[in-house]
Amino acid sequence: MSERVLLTGNQAIARGFWEAGGVVASSYPGSPTVEIMESLKDYADIHAHWAMNEKVALEIAIGGSFAGARSLVSMKHVGMNIAADPFMTFTQIRTHGGFVLVVGDDPGLSSSQNEQDSRYFAQFANCALLEPSNAQEAKDFVGIALGISEQYGMPVMLRLTSTLCHSRSTVALSERTEPAIAGFTPDQTRYCMLPPYANAQQYFMRERIAKLAAEAASLALDVYEDTGRRDVLFITSGLPYQCLRELDLGYSVYKLGLCYPLPISRLKEIAAAYAHVIVIEELMPFIETQLKAEGLAVQGKQYFPFTGELTTDRIREGLERAQILLASQLPVVVDPAVPKRTPMLCAGCPHRPVFHLLQKAKATVVGDIGCYSLGILEPFEVLKTNLSMGASLGIIQGMAMAQQTAHKAQPLVSVIGDGTFFHSGLSGFADIAKTKHNITVIVLDNRTTAMTGGQETPTTGDLGTATHTISIADVLGSLGIGDVTVADQFDYSSTKTVVLGAMKRDGLSVVIVTRPCALNFRIKEPHFYVDREICISCRACIGVNCPPISMKVYEGQSKKNSYIDPHMCVGCSVCSQVCPVKAIKRAEAREEEKA
Ligand SMILES: Cc1ncc(C[n+]2csc(CCOP(=O)(O)OP(=O)(O)O)c2C)c(N)n1
Ligand code: SF4
Ligand code: SF4
Ligand code: SF4
Q1: Which residue has the higher pLDDT, 217 or 437?
Q2: CATH number of the domain located at residue range(s) 4-217 in this protein
Q3: What is the whole-number distance in angstroms between the Cα of residue 554 and the centre of ligand 4?
């Protein structure tokens, strides 16, 4: 009997790729799929690569497939937007080495800037789409997807959602199939996508999708649970299937594994036997719309939300709206009354002093994507826009142009991290290099992609594992940007002088702040404490908003003074620098005083 282990959906994907003889895997970090690449790195016989962005990650996997190796690329849903250009052309090509694209959607936006449904990308690009519903299927579907890819000559998308990526279930393991890599055989008609070669591929794409649809039933990817009742049939896929199982309602269920193209003939045949057919799917009515287009009288989204996760409770509520369940069958949902907590920067985060000084300067700050997006929220509320990775540089230019015409010119500031700088900021910097507008860009080089768990960036350097580093200052210099200052933001007053000075100058000024991420590099300097004999309770340190700092009544005192939790403080010193009476001291100093 094969070994059975508990795996997350992400770990199962990695295992499935290894078992299926996968060779080239690349990715760009983003929740919920980060763990796929982290897990792939444990398999020595796979080239597992963090790329600079999703487009490059996709292209690396395409190269692997062109050379005949089974290849995988993984990304979060918004990564599809970055990778869309090569993807839309790649799907025209008859695939050589099996190719699987794993996309993690995030219903409910638990860690994303939008909630797009990636399944439409598969349809848009004429690419097959599989949706697993648990970790076992996640593993098995990788091998099946690679097989489909080679048999039908097309890339296959595997679509997961956050909960499936992160939740664990048992998985039966198998041995690895040794890869057979055919190598690259030059064939311009196949690999050069220009007219006339690309024209012919339009027909090829349609034909292979039609062939797969016709043969879909024989692939045994779907599950039909016929309970004998003929009043209602549920058609579903992915995680909602597991929720339906949990509800155990006694109705028949058809669970799709292949969601594009659909096994239409089989579905028509089965659906004809039922009085009502209800589609239960998360986000957009992707399956429902396809079925309606084929003339099936199905219902679905009119009962269920188009946004957020489709949990067991939400399915139950939808079925009540559809009058399939009675309200009396619904359990009383008890609100667990979990206190709300705003996400906040870690103790000693290097972004904190930058936000603090921008807040005090009342600057109009254009935001970007990273841990520093938390600058949008209380208590700083300093970032005034947030869109997509690297967008700050274009947005700030457009704002400056519009403001100039409206005679409302005012200094504009934007922030961008080192991860985002290399992901998609480079072209924005090349574009903004020669602006005449008063624009200050602060590059928050914390030497990691912190928000997604601390993957390396080209600036990681000696603090991490990378041996090859790229200097952001040098890159900016080579783009012709002359006004570049490097500052240490833990030297609060000098950084403030640098930033305020930059804001006064016309043209582009860039300030690179260089303190590393406190969490990722496990920074722990001797902590600070408040000398309550000196503290005047002015609360200036509270304004720094570092988690260890609070106001409390010390023993034997009547009024509140500031207090620093020594276990949480990592000793960055920023709060001590804003204290007007020097009441905040490093712990070492206290020892010295005692002596
Ligand atoms: C297109 C896209 N890909 C991936 C992500 C996931 N993601 C969120 S923030 C971030 C990068 C953060 O790195 P950095 O700019 O260095 O900021 P830090 O978190 O280190 O402060 C990534 C990759 C995303 N939001 N959008
Ligand atoms: S992970 Fe690093 S960059 Fe992100 S909030 Fe924490 S210290 Fe700051
Ligand atoms: S020194 Fe002050 S600002 Fe820095 S980590 Fe400690 S409490 Fe926070
Ligand atoms: S800034 Fe200094 S004086 Fe003011 S509350 Fe904090 S420790 Fe006390």
Answers
A1: 437
A2: 3.40.50.970
A3: 14
Facing residues of 276 across strands?
232
**Tokens 């002359």 — which residue?**
482
At the topology level, CATH places domain 351-513 in Rossmann fold (3.40.50)
The two structure tokens encoding residue 320: 């009540």
Name the pLDDT band for 595 (thresholds 50, 70, 90). Answer: very low
pTM passes above 0.90: yes
The CATH class of the 223-321 domain is: alpha beta
Give the position, in ligand 1's atom list, of the atom nearest the Cα of 351.
21
- Give the domain ranges of the chain: 4-217, 223-321, 351-513, 528-593
- Nearest CA, atom 22, ligand 1: 30
Rounded to whole angstroms, the Cα distance separating 569 from 168 reads: 34
Find the 575 Cα to ligand 4 centroid distance in Å.
9
Choose among 396, 382, 402, 385: nearest CA to 425.
396
Per-residue model confidence as pLDDT tens digits over 133-188: 999 999 999 999 999 999 999 999 999 999 999 999 999 999 999 998 999 999 99
Atom of ligand 3 nearest to the CA of 565: 7
Spatial CA neighbour of 519 closest among 343, 342, 348: 348
pLDDT in tens, 45-97: 999 999 999 999 999 999 999 999 999 999 999 999 999 999 999 999 999 99
The CA distances from residue 371 to 340, 344, 385, in Å, are 19, 9, 15
Verify whether ligand 1 is closer than 6 Å to residue 576 (CB atom).
Answer: no
Does 4-217 match 528-593 in CATH topology? no
Bridge partner residues of 485 (DSSP)? 511
Residue recorded with tokens 């309970």: 227
